[in-house]
TrEMBL record:
Lineage, broadest ranks: Eukaryota, Metazoa, Ecdysozoa, Arthropoda, Hexapoda
UniProt-listed GO biological process terms: cell volume homeostasis; chloride ion homeostasis; potassium ion homeostasis
Entries under Pfam families matching the protein: AA_permease, SLC12
Family the UniProt entry places it in: Belongs to the SLC12A transporter family.
Organism, as annotated: Aphis glycines (Soybean aphid)
Protein name: Solute carrier family 12 member 9
Amino acid sequence: MNSEIPPPTGVSFAGSSGEKIPLMNRRRQVLDYFTRMFGNSSSGSEETAKDGYVEFGNIGEATSGRTLGPFAGVFAPVCLSMFSAMLFLRVGFVVGNAGLIETLFQFAIAYTIIVFTVMSVCAISTNGAVEGGGAYFMISRTLGPELGGSIGTLFFLANIVSSALCLTGCVEGLIDNFGESGYLVPVDSYLLKDGHWWRFTYTSSLNFLNLIICLIGATLFAKTTVIIFAIVVICLVSSIISFFLKSPFQIEVPAANIFVNQTNTTAMLNYTGFSLTTFTENLGPSFGRDYTSNNIAVTFSSVFGVLFCGVTGILAGANMSGNLKNPSYSIPRGTLGGVLFTFISYITLSILAAATCSRDLLQENYVFLMPINIWPPFTSIGILTATFSASLSCLIGSSRVLEALAKDCIYGRLLQFVNYGVWRSNPVAAVLFSWLLVQLILFIGSLNLIAQLNSILFLLAYVALNLTCLGLDLTSAPNFRPSFKYFSAWTCSLGLMGSVIMMFVINPFYASTSFGLCLLLILLLHFFSPCEATEWGSISQALIFHQVRKYLLLLDPRKNHIKFWRPQMLLMVANPRSSCPTITFINDLKKSGLFVLGHVKVDKAETNLDYTDKAISSWLTLVDHVKVKAFVELTVANSVRDGLHHLIRLSGMGAMKPNTVVMGFYDDKVPLDYFTRLDSVYKTSAFQGITTNEEKFPLRLPNEEKHLSASEFVSMICDIFQMHKNICICRHFDLYNKTDIVKNIKYKYIDVWPVNFFGPSMNDAYDTSSLFMLQLSCIIKMIAVYKKHTLRVHLLNTIDIQSQRMQLKQLLSTLRIKATIHEVTEWSQIDLRTLDSDRNTYISRVNKLIKNQCAETAICFVYLPLPKEIRGSDLQNVSYLNSLTDLTNNLPPTVLVHGVSAVTSTTL
């Protein structure tokens, strides 16, 4: 037996960088990993090591706090939450108004939505470890902080409303039992007074009792769920049996139905027993009025809103995920079992009620099950236990969702009090805040009105769950492989569409408001949330990847047309510390095209194979800091020239590849550090290390040798030309200040010089380079900062100046470029014969001519001539670079431009 084993690949553990670790430590690390992944522990498990392999026994044993199985942890809570106030209090209301056929139709719609949503829940919950937070955890870890946080907030509110709904139902049951003419008090006596404010007092008292239980005994309640469920089932069975044992008789109108009692004090309601006549009369709809909501008219949508609130408890099991022994096993089985059991119960009660109770009884007495029961206290106990336990469960669930939102720092300091208010793992502050919100909802008073709001909020949560599962399925992510297989994109889509449609059927105003609130929360969280949730994973990234890949394949480079040309820039950055103004300018110049920041690390590639992985994070942080829309490409090469070849060939993908390469100018200026300058808008400490060695992007020292020679720089210009890319060389951008251009009124022009000063010709203004230069100047003029500036095209004063002016004016008009033509009369003073005989003097005079025209110029575009010899000697290259240097000395920020392909179009 080996006492040490090498770490495996595929899973990262401490000590997995290549060294061997002791076997016992190895076991502990692996067990801790699987504990975090599956919520289980190996305590008490048998472990053996044979031939260097670790064997695990009973990895599925429960950790402390995770003790519940499918029945106690999921099935019972789901059934209790779905029964809530509907089972004993509103089955008659639904059947009496909608009729049996429409009731069965509504149950079919509701349970279709529910089953499809449960399939989505099961798929997500069996795709990995589900931690505390239930549905919020599943949604947020898939949709990301913005969508997850907004939906989680509305799910929290849904639990709040559901708790208030159940409390209202509980008090309604208490009044019908112990109020005036209550079924459990003597005639003409009562224990509880009735009225709007009396009911508010009772619900508030029960809500306060919920608060006390949550603060001192929430764990005990979780352990008694099975007992409560057993009591409710016994009461349900007694109600079903009573239909068969009870003989026909008359039932009084409940005292709560003041609208009937005021007009007919002797009215009686008929329980007919099993009767074909009664069954036939109850088949069709006959909408009446709701005596618990100021006698308002009942409609299909209001009935469905009440019915649907009785099936919204499917997430009760998922909410218990933090206490489940094996969430991935328990949630699917327990939830589907609960849905099936409640469906059978509701359908059975609906059919029996329609076959035995008159329409008046169902419409005018919502607690008709009580007098029918062979022992009325059974129904009373069922009402009170089902509603009160469901209200308590919702209060506990809402506080846990709020706690999860606070821990995730979704709202930053706004919910910080929740994290501080925790005592012995009980989120006291979250419980108190949830209790207060429930208290506010209780002011509504009517169960049926609260039910509509409750249904809308839960349906919105179902929309998010189905959307989550649909997105995961459509992205075809390899890591989405749930063990629950009975779902598809179709089930998710049907659940999603059904939820949205029924939201608007129930209440268009509530539905629109909830979607609007959700959108508002998404925007607020996107712009203001301090949440750093990169480890969650956002489905938006997976969907974007899926769509981008598809459209990149459709973007065929063979179908490119000049009409839709746009600049796709590769900017070569030696050091971003000194290049921030250039980066900002090229970001404006790209015109919604591709923008790539390229950098070459000069070193041996074999010893720097991991350079990109180590450096990319700092570069992406730079992109965020400078606020540009750019990609980053890094490479390691023996020389800058070789690295340039790498980047030109490999940057981009498919038809999205750079067509223009931008470089800074080669000169002897000392580079400025824009990250430390006090007057710099790019000032930041983000790239500052504790020591000099830890500093990001260190600048070259003044006496330090450059990685690039003058001759190599010129060779790079020629290489770019030979690789058929447009060329831009930026000089004097240390003078470029975008803020100053906006504020300083002296800047009036953007200048274009469409002339090859190294060999002037009458046709220079119409060749590819000049047209490319005009296109770039037009693009920069579209930017808001430069819209007030005049685009000025300089025309040299030649013999045929009028003809030249007309031609240039016609060209600008054809290209739809709004610019003024400025005649440079000083050009006549320059002797072109000195171009060859005294080149330095000629170029100095041209430089002076340009400089005299640029006193009020913000940006200057100048024609870039190429060297006469593409593969010239070092001496020729240096001479060419010196000429470019003399040509552009002391100018404003200048872009030297050379185009190789047509970029403008005059056709529609």
